[in-house]
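Annual report, structural modelling task.

Input specification for the magnesium ion complex:
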Amino acid sequence: MPVPPHHGRLQWIDVPPPMRARLEDALGAPVTAALTPHGGFGHQLAATLHLADGRRVFVKAAGDEGPLTAANVHEAAVLDTLPPGAPAPDLLGIHHAAGWTAVVIAHLDGPHPDLSPRSRDAEQTWALLDQLTSSPAPAPYAAAVRTTPSTAAALHGWDELLADPPADLPPTARAHLPQLAEQEAAWPTLAAGDRIVHGDLRADNMVHDRTRGVTFVDWAHATTGPACIDAASLAPQLILAGHAPEVVARLLRDHPATATNPVATTAFLTALTGHWHLNARKTAPPGAPGLRAYQHRAAAAGLALLNHRLD
Ligand SMILES: Nc1ncnc2c1ncn2[C@@H]1O[C@H](COP(=O)(O)OP(=O)(O)OP(=O)(O)O)[C@@H](O)[C@H]1O
Ligand SMILES: [Mg+2]
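The model returned the following structure:
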């Protein structure tokens, strides 16, 4: 059984041979190359398989003893029940062998979107979010996500930071710690809702496919909730991509998904930012290089937005 690598992801060659054989059999052609796309912090196999007949598929695979298989199976159920036209790739299959599970997904061809102000990808992403959340989640999707607790609803951090404030906490956060902890504490009761929530919207969880345009991937945290969750998640990502915090703060104030639900938006953004501030200061987990550095940057972006929403 391969252990998580300290740098980067498991490779195709690390997958037990019976699972590789099972996949080649199911796909109907030998794998001629397996390329690991750039992006994400996970250590499981997440690779584009090139097949001898010229097709390409995307595969995520992990051993069943860890938590990743459950997340991949959840993602497969989500992909299988999203409404037609949703900005997501199709599920092609799930396979089990040698104590591993592999989820095969239609391959998207392109880079991560460019969320910077010079690109139109951010605009397209907002439009996709509007489309995704304009009506309640279909019943099969709601049923598929019901069995997995929402990671969005469980986000927190300021409670622990208030109890034991780190010396390097930014002055704005330190000055507002009780208010931040209070807003965060309100979040779980506001997290209920009937809309589709991707739950982990970052540029590296999207692909700008050459024919489909921006498409959301990595639906492992998908759930139901208020429409403001994904819109408010996207906001700090735009700051990380170079948008001015005051411009993004205005977008959040005016965008339908967040403007109609300002209390939940602030509570969610507070909980997400608290999660980043708390976790950025923890020891790095194995197999996730770059995660803590990202969380530090995201924590600063989240706080820059909250500055516009705090008393
Ligand atoms: N269907 C797809 N077609 C092509 N590339 C994809 C597809 N799905 C994901 N990718 C690429 O693979 C990378 C890893 O996939 P994904 O984010 O689903 O894996 P993960 O292990 O759950 O990620 P994380 O590290 O965020 O937990 C993405 O950042 C993206 O670049
Ligand atoms: Mg990812």
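The chain has a mean pLDDT of 95.
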